[in-house]
């Protein structure tokens, strides 16, 4: 049962307890930024190296994907969405390396959902103005206004809970399986729960965020 | 297990920091490079089409120049032909004229020569006639004394001899 809890790693006097999920996030950030610094150093316009080609095609794919969802005019939100995609993707499969996934902590998924909520509402206000944003709650008929207002909270809540539930469920199943049959059997399950489900949830999270942003801008 | 605490705030801060770091170290350089490459390709294509346009323009210019040159050469040849014809005519007429003059001169010379010969012949004939007449006269006067006539004759011949000698 103590596998499920998020332990306090250390305590900083002013800031309070630093939880495990935050520390793992720091590790992920450090590794990813380090890799970026190493591989992004020698970029060339002509004759790109192998790593550069992989990097460019990956980022090009993500860019195309988000442009398809949101359109070219929302290009500036793409780097943030790719950041979230990378972070959730790595977080979800980091169980393979012996860490507890940070996304198993509801505080992390809630934090990201709040960020998504801010981004969704901001993109809507920025695109059509505050007046239009206020008015759009009363559309198509004023009766739906309470539901539309609730939607502001519901959308990030669903994002948060979906991610949290999926990762926690996968984590619990994997821990139980490892406890019952420690050898060989967990491997195929690990492929599904850790890798496939992990990436799928990362994809769903950013895809839905982009979709909601697009919706909000109409 | 499910409790909200400071981690939520840290997560948001982490995410923002992570976003800024990735933007600086990953997105800006990679997207910059990709844009640069796209721009380079677009520039290359633009350049190629520009060069082609220029080449076509030059080609049209050259073709026009070539056509002009051909026309000019035809004109030159025509002009030369006309000039040559005129020159030919001129020379021919000149030669004609000259030949005519020469003929005229020759005719005149021949005429003059003929006249001269005629005159000479006439005087000769007159001389011969005179001689003949003299002979006849002499024969007539033979009876009057052969000796005198012989003397006369010999004198005449001697005179002629003397004349030829002096010539």
Structural class of chain B: mainly alpha
- The helicity of chain A comes to over 70%
Radius of gyration computed on alpha carbons of chain A: 20 Å
**Head-to-tail CA distance between termini of chain A:** 46 Å
Envelope shape of chain B: rod-shaped
Provide the domain count of chain A: 1
Mean pLDDT of chain A: 86
The gross shape of chain A turns out to be: globular
Major sheet strand order of chain A:
1-2
Count of distinct strands of chain B: 0
Low-confidence stretches of chain B: none
Task: Kindly estimate the percentage of residues of chain B that lie in beta strands according to DSSP.
Answer: under 5%
Ranges of chain A where pLDDT stays below 50 over 5 or more residues in a row are none
Q: Roughly what percent helix of chain B? A: over 70%
The tally of domains of chain B stands at: 1
Explain what this protein looks like in three dimensions:
The complex is a heterodimer of chains A (218) and B (167). By secondary structure, chain A is mainly α. Chain A has one domain (8-216). Helix content of chain A is 71%, strand content 4%. Chain A is built from six helices and two strands. A two-stranded antiparallel ribbon of chain A has the order 1-2. In chain A, β1 and β2 (16-19) form a beta hairpin. Chain A starts with 7 loop residues before the first strand and ends with a helix. The relative contact order of chain A is 0.13. The mean pLDDT of chain A is 86. Chain B is an all-alpha fold and 167 residues long. Chain B has one domain. Helices cover 93% and strands 0% of the residues of chain B. Chain B is built from two helices and no strands. Chain B starts with 6 loop residues before the first helix and ends with a helix. The model of chain B has no long low-confidence stretch (mean pLDDT 86). Chain A binds chain B through residues 4-6, 15-19, 21-22, 25-26, 29, 32-33, 36-37, 40, 43-46, 48, 52, 55-56, 59-60, 63, 79-80, 82-84, 86-87, 102, 105-108, 110-112, 114-115, and chain B through 1-2, 4-12, 14-19, 21-23, 25-27, 29-31, 33-34, 36-37, 40.
């Amino acid at each position: 049962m103590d596998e499920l809890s998020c332990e306090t790693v250390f305590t900083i006097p002013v800031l309070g307890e630093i939880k495990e999920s935050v520390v793992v996030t720091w590790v992920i950030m450090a590794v990813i930024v380090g890799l970026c610094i190493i591989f992004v150093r020698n970029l060339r316009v002509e004759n790109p190296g192998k790593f550069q080609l992989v990097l460019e095609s990956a980022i090009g794919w993500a860019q195309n994907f988000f442009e398809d969802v949101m359109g070219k005019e929302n290009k500036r939100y793409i780097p943030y969405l790719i950041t979230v995609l990378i972070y959730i993707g790595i977080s979800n499969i980091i169980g393979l390396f012996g860490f507890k996934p940070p996304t198993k902590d509801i505080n992390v998924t809630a934090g990201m959902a709040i960020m998504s909520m801010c981004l969704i509402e901001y993109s809507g206000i920025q695109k059509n103005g505050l007046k239009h944003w206020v008015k759009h709650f009363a559309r198509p008929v004023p009766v739906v206004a309470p539901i539309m207002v609730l939607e502001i909270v519901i959308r990030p809540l669903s994002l948060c809970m979906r991610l949290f539930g999926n990762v926690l469920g996968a984590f619990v199943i994997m821990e139980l399986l490892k406890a019952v049959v420690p050898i060989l059997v967990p491997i195929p399950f690990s492929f599904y729960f850790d890798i496939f489900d992990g990436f799928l949830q990362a994809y769903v999270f950013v895809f839905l965020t982009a979709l909601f942003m697009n919706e909000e801008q109409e | 297990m499910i409790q909200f605490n400071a981690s939520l705030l840290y997560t948001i801060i982490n995410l923002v920091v992570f976003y800024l770091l990735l933007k600086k170290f990953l997105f800006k350089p990679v997207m910059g490079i990709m844009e640069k490459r796209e721009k380079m390709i677009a520039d290359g294509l633009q350049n190629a089409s520009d060069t082609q346009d220029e080449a076509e323009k030059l080609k049209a210019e050259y073709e026009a120049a070539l056509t002009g040159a051909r026309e000019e050469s035809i004109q030159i040849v025509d002009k030369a032909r006309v000039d040559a014809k005129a020159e030919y005519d001129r020379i021919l007429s000149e030669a004609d004229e000259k030949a005519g003059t020469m003929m005229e001169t020759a005719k005149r010379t021949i005429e003059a020569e003929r006249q001269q010969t005629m005159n000479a012949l006439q005087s000769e004939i007159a001389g011969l006639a005179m001689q003949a007449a003299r002979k006849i006269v002499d024969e007539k006067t033979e009876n009057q004394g052969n000796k005198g006539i012989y003397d006369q004759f010999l004198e005449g011949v001697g005179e002629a001899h003397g004349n030829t000698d002096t010539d």
